[in-house]
Amino acid sequence: MHKIKLAIVDDHKILREGIKASLINKIDIDIVFEAENGEDFLEKLKYQIIDVVLLDIKMPKIDGIEVLKTIKNLDSDIKVIILTMFDTESYVLKLMDLKANGYLLKNSDPQEIYNAIKNSVDFGYYFPDFVKNLLLKRTVSQKKINPKNNENLIEFTQKEVDIIRLISEQKTSAQIGKEMFLSPRTIDGIKAKLIERTKVDNTIGLIVYCYKHGILL
Known about the structure:
The chain is built from 10 helices and 5 strands. By secondary structure, the chain is α/β, with parallel strands linked by helices. The protein has 2 domains: 125 residues, Response regulator (Rossmann fold, 3-Layer(aba) Sandwich), CATH 3.40.50.2300; 70 residues, Arc Repressor Mutant, subunit A (Orthogonal Bundle). The chain has a 5-stranded parallel β-sheet with strand order 2-1-3-4-5, sandwiched between helices. α7 crosses α10, α8 packs across α9 and α9 packs across α10. It is globular, with a radius of gyration of 18 Å. About 4% of the residues have low confidence.
């Protein structure tokens, strides 16, 4: 079994200890290291391989926003889940624009923290309902394309639309395959082709593309 390699970055030791305690019985997660600020994290990252980082934003020396930018500029596959107390619209959307893979409030319960880590690896993202609603609200408000009049709009089969909708519901390839009577490998192949056709980076981009163009309503 592949263990998810996790780093926890927060300047409050008590919060780091709380997260570690909540994950101690999760046999599929390996907490590789923790750090108390962005500088400490980036130094440790030179010598350790991780899959996911739970990242605080407000920290001394190098803050979480700069760390997020650095990770994305590395072109790595590290999933960044923001860990914060702030849930204002402008704050959330700014972090989403910086391509954060997930967003958690610091008062999230242990199960949600675990779900966020798992889903960020399985799907590439994890957003609680309030974040998804903000993203959808912005997508709809910025919608400038009329699909009926757009000659360059990519056409999808009903099967593809159904798969995209199930992806947006954060279902795994195995779960989607079961509903669609297809193998998980076939679903993964369809996902990859859809991402390539729409010229987006990942499944988040695919879902946003479909909302923006009226394919998902």
